[in-house]
Amino acid sequence: MSNAPETPLQKKLVEMAWDPITRIVGSLGIHTKIDFENRRVAECYSTSSIFRGYSVFMRGKDPRDAHFITSRICGICGDNHATCAVYAQNMAFGVKPPHLAEWIINLGEAAEYMFDHNLFQDNLVGVDFCEQMVRETNPGVLAKAEKTEAPNARIHGFRTIADIMRGLNPFTGPFYLEALQMSRLTREMFCLMEGRHVHPATLYPGGVGTVPSVQVFNDYLVRLLKYIDFLKRCVPLHDDLFDFFYQALPGYEEVGRRRIMLSCFGSFQNPEACDFKYETMGQWGRAMYVTPGIVLDGKLITTDLIEINLGIRILLGSSFYTDWSAEKPFVTHDPLGNPIDPRHPWNQTTLPKPQKRDFSKNYTWVMSPRWFEKSSGAHLALDTGGGPLARFWVTALAGLVDIGGYVKATGHSVKIRLPKTAHHGETELEWHIPKWSNTLERDRARSYFQAYSAAAAVYFIEKALGEVHAGRLKTWNEFKVPKEAISCGFHEAVRGALSHHMVIRDGRIANYHPYPPTPWNASPRDSFGTPGPYEDAVMNTPIFEENGVDKFKGIDIMRTVRSFDPCLPCGVHMYVGDGKVIEARHSPTFGAHVQ
Amino acid sequence: MSESIKEIDVLWITAGLGCDGDTIAITAATQPSLEDIVQGIIPGIPKVRFHNPVLAYENGEAFMQFFHDAADGKIDPFILVVEGSIPNEKNKTEGYWAAFGTDRVTGQPIPTCQWIDRLAPKAWAVVTAGTCAAFGGIHAMPGNPTGAMGLADYLGWSWKAKTGIPIVNVPGCPVQPDNFMETLLYLFRQAAGGAPMIPLDEAMRPTWLFADTVHEGCDRGGYYEQGEFTEEYGKKQCLVKLGCWAPVVQCNVGKRGWMGGVGGCANVGGICIGCTMPGFPDKFMPFMEQPPGSILSSQAIQTYGGAIRALRAFTQASMNKEPEGRKPTQSSDAAKTT
C-alpha cells in the first residue's frame, strides 16, 4: 500500500492486493500482507469503494415507498430488502396481512434462497474449486482428486473428485451449466410469486398484489419438484467435494476459521403467530420457520428479536463518515420502555465524508455494525457465516422448527425430508452442527440450505393451496400511514442477517437505516480496533496454495472471502498492513510491480 | 454496413452507483442466453469475449488488465457496457463516490468516471445496462449527496462512439433479461455487417423493444376497456387506481413476461412504477397513489365501459348456452326430420 507506514524488516512480508474481487456481487478488493516463509496471512484490512447514500436520500420520502426504494440496494437479493421493508412498514402502519399473503411471500423468499445459493455456489464459488483453478493453484491436490473415487458417485454420476471439479469449469463444465439453467427455473418460481426478479412488483405493506389461483401454485410446484430432483444430486456432490479438501489438505479446517459468533435474524413468517407488533416480536420471532438468534462459542445466547434489536450498535471506526454523536437522537426508548442507545440504527445519521483511502486511518465506505453483549460488555463483531451457516446453527440449537414434517430441528442438527421426484425416491438429508465456523462449513451449509428452502416451500404450497381451496383469496389489508411511528423489520437476506429500522415523523420518513449482512461481515476495524469478520477470518488463514510469490493467486484467501457470500453494492476492499511492509506487489498474477 | 468484425470484447463496468442487478438479470436470459453467446453457437456474429466482474474467472489485477489494455488501445474493437449511475466526482474536495480497481502508482482507487473518460472514446459502441446507467434511476433521487446521473447526462446526449453509434440505452430496474441480451445480439450482428444501424428512439432505447406502452400489451387492458378498476391489491381488474402507470410507460414486460414468458408486473399483480422511463423514480412517486393523469381517463371510460360490459354480458350469456338440439333423439323423431 502506498500509504502504509514502512518500517525495517521484521519478517519477510509481501503485500498483495486483489482489487476487485470478482465472482461476487458488488465491488470488493482485498489488500493483504502475507508471510510466505510461515505460509500464513499476516494481516488484512477490508475496504469499500462505492457510496450510494440510501439512508440520506430516503429522508422525507413517503413511508409507503420504502420497499420499492430499498429493493434497489441489492441486485441479487433486492427482494429480501423489499420483504424486510414491508415487515417494517407493517409494524409502523399497524397492519397484519392475510395468511395467504404471508404464504406467497414465504414462497417467493424460498425461491430466492434456492436461486441465489445455487447460482453463487456453482457458478461463482464453484469456480474456486473447479479443475482449471485447482490445476493452477494446487496441482498436487488435482492429482489426488484424479485418484479419489467420489463416495456419492452413484447418486450424482461423477466418478472421481476430479470429475466433479471438471464439472465445475466455467461455461464448459456440465454441472456449471446445469446449475446456471436451474437458477433460471427457481427464478421463474420467484416471478410467479413476486412478479419480477430481483426487484419485485407485487410486494406491498399490508400484503401482496399477486393474484392467487390454483394455477399459480401448481406452476410453482412442478418447477420446485424438478429443482428438488437436481438438489438430490447437488448436495451429495458438494459433500464429496468439501470432504475431499479436508482429506487432501490436512489442516484445511483452519482456512477462514474464526471464533463462533453467528447471528441469524429469522426467516419465513408463521402467519398464525405473527401480528407485526413490536411488543410481541419476541414470541412471533420464535415462531418463524427459521429461528432468529445469536450463537456465541457454540452456545445459543438468545432467540429474542427484541433483545437482538436492542443490542445493535453502529460504530464508525475506519469508515468515511463524520460521527453523528452531536445530533439529537430520534428514539430514546422503544415501545416497551427499554432505553435505545445513541449508536442504534434508529438514531444513526449518515454524514458521508469522501476522503483519500488511508489504511492507517479510514479506508472504507462500510461502517462497523456490532452487537453489544450485556454480560461481557463487549461489542461483538458477529458474522452471518454467509447466511446458511448461522441459520442452521441457530435453528438446530433452538430446536423450535418443525415445518409440517418436512424440516425438523433436533437440538443438534436439522433434518430435511425431500419428497419423491422423477429420478429419485423420497430422500432425507441431515445437517449436523460442524466443529468449526470456517470456509468449507460456510460453503457446505449453503448447499444444505437450498434443500431446507425447497422442503419448506413444499409445505408453504400446501398451506397456500389450502387457503385457495377454502375460498380465502384476500391477499391485502388496508392501512393508514400514521403521523409518528418507529418500527423495525427482521429477515434473512440470502447471505444473512438483515434488519431495517424506520422512524416516521409528520407522515414522512425521518430516518431509515437498512442493515444488510455484508456490512456486518465486511466491516473494517471499529472504534475499539476490533477487525471485521472478513479481516479476521483472512488473517487467521494458513496458505495451502502450492504457488510461490510470483504465481500466487491467493486461492485460500479467495475461498475464504467468497465463503461469506460477499454482496457489496455497498463495496469492500481489504488490505493487510501493520507497518512491517518491505515489498509491495499489486499484481500477484502479472508479476512484480514494486511501488 | 461495410464492417465485418470477426472478434469483439465486451468490457462491462458494474462500478457505477448500482446494485449489479442488471448483471444478475442477464444470467436469467435465455433468448439468447449468455452461454449461447460465449460458446459461439449463434450464427452470423463475431466471436465474443465477455469481461464482467460478477462472472469472470480472473481476479483483481488479472481482471483489471483487460480494462487497462482497452484503455491503452491493445483491445480493439470492444463494446463498453456501463451499469449503475454516474456520480458527480466534482462536488467535493477529495475522495471518491465510486471506483474500480486501484491505481498502480498512487495506491488510490480509480474513480469510475476516469474509466469512462478513458474507455468511451475508444469503444466500438457504448451500452447502458439498466435505468441507473441510462437515466440516473433510483440513485439520482433528490437529496442524494453523490450527484448521480445517467451516462448520457455525463457524456452528453448527442455523444457518439467513434463508429457513429449513439449511446444505446437498455433501461429497466433491473433490465428485462432478454431485452438486454437481444440488444447485444443486435449490435454483434451489426458489427459482423449483418444488420443496419441499430434503431433507437429519442431516449436512445431500441425501438422494437420500447415503442409500445405497457398498457398496449397489458393482459388487464380488457378490464380497463370495460371500466373495471380494483382498489384493492390481489384482484384481477385494472390497477390504474392503485398507482399503475402502464398507460404511459414504454416497456414490453407486459407482453414478454419477465423470463421465459413467466412473471412481470401488472400481469402478476403489481402496479407499473415506470422503471424504464427517464422520469423514474421522481415523477412516479409516491408510487402507491393513482397517477393524476389517469383520473379523467378512468372516469371517462367507466360510462362507455359499463355499457359495453352490459351488452357483452348479454351476448356472453347466450354464447354460454349450446345451440338447440344437442340431445339424444328418438329414431322416430329422426325419421320425421329426414
Structure report:
The complex is a heterodimer of chains A (595) and B (338). Chain A is an alpha+beta fold. Chain A has a single domain, classed as Cytochrome-c3 Hydrogenase, chain B, CATH 1.10.645.10. Chain A is 36% helix and 18% strand. Chain A contains 17 helices and 20 strands. Chain A has helices spanning 54-57, 66-71, 78-93, 99-124, 131-137, 139-147, 153-156, 161-167, 174-194, 214-248, 281-286, 305-311, 388-398, 439-469, 517-522, 533-539, 555-563; strands at residues 13-18, 25-35, 40-48, 203-204, 207-208, 261-264, 293-296, 299-302, 312-315, 368-373, 378-380, 402-403, 407-409, 413-418, 427-432, 485-493, 496-505, 508-515, 567-573, 583-585. In chain A, the strands form six sheets. In chain A, strands 1, 2, 3, 19 and 20 form a five-stranded mixed β-sheet that branches. Chain A has a four-stranded antiparallel β-sheet with strand order 12-13-14-15, with helices on one face. A three-stranded antiparallel β-sheet of chain A has the order 6-7-8. In chain A, a hairpin with a 6-residue loop joins strand 1 and strand 2. In chain A, 64% of the residues are buried. Mean pLDDT of chain A is 91; it is low at 1-9 and 570-595. With 338 residues, chain B is α/β, with parallel strands linked by helices. Chain B folds into two domains: 7-208, Rossmann fold (3-Layer(aba) Sandwich), CATH 3.40.50.700; 212-313, Cytochrome-c3 Hydrogenase, Chain A, domain 2. In chain B, the strands form two sheets. In chain B, strands 2-1-3-6-7 form a five-stranded parallel β-sheet, sandwiched between helices. In chain B, a hairpin with a 6-residue loop joins strand 4 and strand 5 (109-111). Chain B is elongated, with a radius of gyration of 26 Å. The mean pLDDT of chain B is 94. Classes of the chains: A alpha+beta (595), B alpha/beta (338). At the A-B interface, strand 2, helix 4, helix 9 and strand 5 of A face helix 1, helix 3 and strand 4 of B.
